[in-house]
Amino acid sequence: MSIEPIASNENRFNGKYVMACIDGSSVSESVCDYASWIASEIVRPLKLTHTIANNQHAAVADYSGAIGLGSQQELLNELTDVEQSRASLLIKKGQLMLNAAKERAQAAGVQEIETYQHHGSLAESLIELESEIRVMVIGIRGKQHENQQTGIGHQLESVIRSMHKPILVVNKAFTQPKNAMLAYDGSSSCKKALEMIASSEMFKKIPCHIVHVGKDGEQLINEAKSYLADAGVKATSALLDGPVVDALVDYQLEKDIDLTLMGAFSHSRFRDLLLGSFTAKMLEATNRPLLLLR
């Protein structure tokens, strides 16, 4: 049995830009570096994005009802000025971050770079830009949660559930990947990952390990290995035993895997609540970047 290509009109690999989400967190430099590497490898322009969240503590909204109008109008005007000044400072701060990221990407050799600022949630911003995105790069935790040692940021979960483009989640300082691993179970998202590996020049330069956890996956991974070999990708395969997350993380460490590809969250929150999210568990367990596909 051969692997059938996935019929699709999603143009999931046809976006123009490598998109990097910059928020000033400690991992932003790594996000910029990985995005720069991908942009150089697949010869695509880099788009650096920064999102300014809508102010949830707006002075006027919080206090206008309490102090009334009339004699208090002067105070309301002052509060409005404070809010406007805060918004202006946030815009300037974001511009400085984007300028620094652009200089870093230029130093890495990226030729074509754009910057973009947007007000609203990160997921909303990226959904608006989704048709432009070929692959996006984001940190595992944003600025608000960067001091957490475990778990993933709330915005990251929203982005993964909302987007239908490849998402590279960065959780460490940049090192140029010398190999990759595909956690393969024959699902549609894994077949998408297999197609991406086969069609990308980036993976022609590094070997790919195709792994499956379970006793009955030998034919599955051999077919995937053959599919990649026909596309000119050097591939090896392995069957792993034990709990899925533990087996994959142990293999990462044993083979010193730099980049792992896998399917992302299921479409059903109810199913994730019942069974637990494999994606979230992998993100928490590994210290290597994950390239996720839906």
> What is the distance, rounded to the nearest whole angstrom, between the alpha carbons of the first and last residues?
24 Å
Known CATH architecture of the largest domain: 3-Layer(aba) Sandwich
CATH topology of the largest domain: Rossmann fold
Question: What is the spatial order of strands in the main beta sheet?
Answer: 3-2-1-4-5-10-9-6-7-8
Arithmetic mean pLDDT: 82
Share of residues in strands: 15-25%
Q: What kind of oligomer do you see?
A: single chain
**H/E topology pattern:** EHEHHEHEHEEHEHEHEHHE
Helix content: 40-55%
Overall form: elongated
**Radius of gyration, whole Å:** 22 Å
Level-1 CATH class name of the largest domain: Alpha Beta
Number of domains: 2
By helix and strand content, what is the structural category?
Answer: alpha/beta
